[in-house]
Prior knowledge:
Blueprint: H1 3-18, H2 25-35, H3 41-49, H4 59-84, H5 91-121, H6 124-146, H7 160-179
Helix pairs in contact: 1-3, 1-7, 2-3, 4-5, 4-7, 5-6, 6-7
Amino acid sequence: MSTSGAGAGVAIALVVMLSFLPLNHSQANLVEQTCQKVTYHDLCVSALRSDSRSSGGDVKGLAVIMINLVKVNGSDILGEVKKLIPKASDEVSKKCLGLCRDGFGGALNRLIPEAMAKLESGARHEAMLVMIDVGETAIDCDACFSDERFGPSRGPPPFTDKDHVYFYLATTARDIIGIS
Length: 180
């Protein structure tokens, strides 16, 4: 298992372990009821239960928590990408890592704050559309390594597992925004 795979495994294990933290009954029900309506139910439950803020509030608050989890995950990926760029040994990898850096940087600095602002203003549909763009950041990054846009395929990036989690979290945030 690669280092990034181990890191993703540790992160997922941590989320699963933290999912056993107690919430009061009504908040546990809110998390469960909300997560029943999203694409990635198990990830939703464990991610929200790992954050103590989910023990109070409403569905909109759960959406804010999930967006913040996307941001944390994206920051982790961006940090890894920035470390890999100077180590890239070929032009295709350098270009793809640059595309990933720019994509995650844009998501973190522009798209996620935009989604949060739209959610806070009540523009749920627009916030959902922005979260789709946020999730597509990971898809575009992964695709660059496997398609031949800059040259022969290099296979998936070393952080592909983290990209997948990021996409699942962004999709879950989008789903929760839709029901908030």
